[in-house]
Amino acid sequence: MLKPLQKSSQKPLLQRFFWPLLGLLWLLSTALDRLWLQLDQRLPAWDQADYLNSALDHGRALGLLAGGHWQGWQALLDLSPKIPPLASLVNGTVMAVAGDSPDQAAWALSLWHGLLLLAVALWGRQLGGILRGAALGLLAALLCGLMPLLAEVRVDYVLEIPLSAACTWALWLLGRWQRPAPLGGHWPQALVAALAVASALLIKQSALLVLGAPALWAAASGLRQGQGQGRRLQVLAALALVLTLLLPWLQHNLITTLGGTERATLESAAREGDPNASSLAGWLWYPRRLPQLVGAIPLIGALLGGLVGAGQLARRGWPYPRWQWPSWQWPSRDWGWLLGALAAGSLLTVLSPNKDSRYLAPLLPLLALALARCWLLLPWPLLAAGLLASAGLTGASRVAAIERQGHPAEPLEAIVASLQGADGASPRTLIVVPSTGGLNQHNVSYYGRRGGGQLVGRQLGGDPAPIAAALAGAQLVLLGSGFQGSVGPQVEAFNSAIRHSGRFVLRQSWPKPLGGRFELWVRRPQAPPGPSFSKRFPPLAAGLAQGPAGLAPLFDAIGVEHQLDGHLLYQGQVRQQALTRLASNPNDPQALWSLGLLAVLQNRPLEADRWFARLETLNPASPWPSAYRAVVLNAAWRPWQARAVADLGQRRSPNPVLRGLGDLSGLLGGQLWRIGSARQSIPAARQAVEAALKPKAGPDG
């Protein structure tokens, strides 16, 4: 009969060497990761370069990396408009110590991986109890190291390893707190669990998929139990701590966060054709990929272990004798928490419209604990053979994933070096038309800003509309022949305009790995300059006085300019010009519109409110300054003031947009009795805005 690991001589060995073995596992996996990074020669692609840029930005903002300095909390929060900042703050700090090359920056991933292994091992030690805790914790950590998906994201500069580590810590600590007294329900447990939950949410919003249901369950359980009001107070204190840590970033970046999340989920899912949860394909999307992400052998071994355990229970009869392995009763409260969290997270991940294998990563440590429980029911020879086979298969897959540079190699570093020359600290913007994994606007920015550089990459060319603006204002343009990447066939119109305009000269070219060449075109000194955007900005900003009709031309022009001027140098010029005009005429409307719009673009809603309030006083008959004030006050989380502004403006100058804003602001401020009015006014306001945004018909209709 198979006996599940009962040799007493083995129990003290794992307990005695728990920490050295866990450290050895981390050191071995880190050494293999560093070897892989040394052999792999790929350049950071779009997502990876974007996260590297974010870490670089935050390291500079903290004053730790060359090219930056501390500018205050507002400037720090400006750097994370869509993705929370915690991972970038940590990664930027590691970058300051380890170096800013992609391989050096990857030391941050090793740090996060160590935190993940620690959380899994400690959680396993708790689940296994005195007799088998060390074995379960170490085996679960080892399985995490062998899972192909986790092995991949350990060397891929994305947020899945930080997110997995933070979510695992949060779930484990929440489970510890909600256990019955005297094991759970202590103040330090509640506060540390709250800190872990906030940390996960400050790494990536998708932590809600894993933590949302368990956190709500734990909070409801604590409020229900009471236990002399102690648990209830702990729930309230934990919630206050989470909000205290989360709200500064969320309040500062709410609008861009909502917009970025919508684009990253709904729009991305529609563009990529991901199956949704209303179809069978959507429900099976992740299960079909599970053997590739977890490994077939860990799944098969767990199945065999489960069969062995079921057979033992059947032979011994039910109920299982309580005097044997009391900490291994299945299911127990702690195991129920783990499996419940795994089930809830899996369900919400499946329901999420955007499908990507990486999104399953935060659930794999929980799965590793469940698999390890079944693996420990196998006899030692079979367990050891399974682990060796799994390690071999994962190692082979990682070797197969190594990419070498093509022939010729990607010329990214050569292009950056050519542009920076002897003065790398001079701010420059390179328009990057091709967009491939090996060369795109994001990795141009990263390599261009390493070591204190100030070269940024921006992309144009996918749409022929900005051709005129690029001909007038672009200084440096990188074109490509042959495969252009993700920009599409319409790029040829842009390329032809740059090459044949006579305003640019070909300075240098480099061969591409897949055929064709990259071409660096530089603006001729004698080329006629277009009108400065700092001169065009004030009349465009004054177009806001027309209401929604002035928005489309304004933001179309700003969108192109933000690509041509990656450092946004025009904003300082516009601000200085406007302040100079106000010094001579405090009621200059064009200057006030310019300053109000600048404050909106720089995410300073309260400053924008002050400028729009002065415009409201200058022109009380116009509804639009009041409308803009209501919008920015809502963005500043001041719905009560926004409601008062909109209602007063509606009385002065009735307008469907103001009426809708008043009802919306009232609802956000808790005036639920305005629901009936809002059902009519908000759709009417939306229709009024859409009608104003429609292009006017020409004389021919």
Describe this structure in words.
By secondary structure, the protein is mainly alpha-helical. It has three domains: 364 residues, no CATH class; 112 residues, D-Maltodextrin-Binding Protein, domain 2; 155 residues, Serine Threonine Protein Phosphatase 5, Tetratricopeptide repeat (Alpha Horseshoe), CATH 1.25.40. The chain is 65% helix and 4% strand. The chain has 31 helices and five strands. Strands 2-1-3-5-4 form a five-stranded mixed beta sheet, sandwiched between helices. The chain is globular and about 90 Å long.
Strand content: under 5%
- With strands numbered from the N-terminus, the spatial order across the biggest sheet is 2-1-3-5-4
Number of helices: 31
- Average predicted local confidence, pLDDT: 91
Low-confidence stretches: 1-10, 320-330, 697-701
Q: What is the radius of gyration? A: 29 Å
Ends apart, CA distance between termini:
88 Å
Question: What class would the helix/strand composition place it in?
Answer: mainly alpha
The main pleated sheet reads as:
5 strands, mixed
Count all strands and give the number: 5
Outline of this structure?
65% of the residues lie in helices and 4% in strands.
SSE order and pairing:
Blueprint: H1 10-16, H2 18-39, H3 46-61, H4 73-78, H5 86-98, H6 102-105, H7 107-146, H8 148-153, H9 160-177, H10 187-201, H11 207-225, H12 230-252, H13 254-272, H14 280-294, H15 296-316, H16 333-351, H17 364-375, H18 380-400, H19 412-420, E1 428-432, H20 441-449, E2 455-458, H21 467-473, E3 476-480, H22 491-500, E4 504-511, E5 517-523, H23 533-542, H24 551-564, H25 569-584, H26 589-601, H27 605-618, H28 624-635, H29 639-652, H30 656-668, H31 675-693
Parallel strand pairs: 1-2, 1-3
Antiparallel strand pairs: 3-5, 4-5
